[in-house]
Write a structure and sequence with these properties.
Structural class: alpha/beta
Number of strands: 6
Radius of gyration: 17 Å
Order of helices and strands: HHHEHEHEHEHHEHEH
Helix content: 40-55%
Number of helices: 10
CATH topology of the largest domain: Rossmann fold
CATH architecture of the largest domain: 3-Layer(aba) Sandwich
Strand order of the largest sheet: 4-3-5-6
Shape: globular
Largest sheet: 4 strands, parallel
């Protein structure tokens, strides 16, 4: 839904694909429609305004010949069950993150950063049952949401200044990994060398899940 996150997903997919020529890359169709009503606002308000737009996107991809779909937007996955009923397999973004946590052998407490809606509606907490999920609260939660909004507005460096201290505070509190559970956040947190724990971002997790599909 976010055009920057959509473009970043496609860019990372190309970069991570082990191809030696054009023909070895994955045939891809990107449906980027920023007119989809805000997913976070809809979830908090308890309405389904984004759903018809999301369904139109799935049908458009089906008509284009796609046989598998991924959605580089975390909050869109609140409508995952409705979308998967349209008949095309869809990789759930939280399941992709879980696979990364398993690959990295992460156990114990994991910190999850995302939109206010993603956190309050327990998108990650309800699916990552093998880990203890902690989320930002109070001012920290507001900073994360502001950072996401800044990325959407094109102010990536300002977003980094807001999100980085929140991540550092989780490390100090004993988190064993940090999940960037909004696809805007990896655009702000581009380096994690200053951390002693893994930073798992949902864009790369989705890319890795795609690369594991049979082609």
């Amino acid at each position: 839904m976010g055009p920057a996150a959509s473009a970043e997903f496609l860019s990372r997919l190309v970069a991570k694909t082990p191809a030696h020529c054009d023909q070895e890359h994955i045939p891809t169709v990107l449906w980027s429609d920023p007119r989809v009503p805000d997913r976070s606002t809809a979830m908090i308000a308890g309405n389904n305004e984004p759903l018809p737009w999301l369904e139109r996107g799935v049908r458009g991809l089906q008509q284009a010949g796609c046989d598998h779909i991924v959605i580089p937007c975390n909050t869109a996955h609140f409508w995952y069950n409705e979308l998967v009923e349209l008949g095309t397999p869809i990789t759930h973004i939280v399941d992709a993150v879980a696979q990364e946590l398993i690959r990295l052998e992460v156990q114990g407490i994991i910190a999850v950063l995302g939109t206010t809606a993603t956190m309050t509606m327990n998108l990650y907490q309800n699916r990552l049952i093998d880990w203890e999920c902690v989320t930002a609260q109070g001012q920290d939660a507001e900073q994360v949401q502001q950072a996401i909004d800044l990325v959407k507005s094109g102010f990536v460096s300002d977003a980094n200044k807001l999100a980085s201290p929140v991540i550092q505070s989780f490390v100090q509190k004993g988190a064993q990994a940090v999940i960037l559970g909004c696809t805007e956040l990896p655009l702000a947190i581009t380096q994690s060398w200053w951390l002693d724990i893994p930073v798992v971002n949902s864009i790369d997790s989705l890319v890795n899940a795609v690369l594991q599909l049979d082609r």
